[in-house]
């Protein structure tokens, strides 16, 4: 890696600092980060989870990495997004890999990233169909927390189910 590029694993950074003011030094370091071409990368984008949609056990887990609103009805938290997970259905290619294998491949990458950047929650958006919901909820432990419309155009818009899982 070039000497002008810095990659910071927050866990490693905090582990090496013996001075006692680790978090202050880390805040100073990150406060100097700016990306004028794409300001979105300067901050994480949170998701909001309605407390009614998750169990008390999951609430206790997500409150560690998120923030409850004053009333305790919603939690705002940061999570990894699994996006564009799909199988190739040309020439019987769908027989070569299972949904479980695809999801495990994504989960393996997230575990590596989780070590480097931290994090506790992963989420995804999926079509609201019975087979997909059974796959994500029953077989893989995801929980529904919201729905989302895909667009303004009523002909092409549809609803996606948002699901999360504590990792």
TrEMBL record:
This is N-acetyltransferase domain-containing protein.
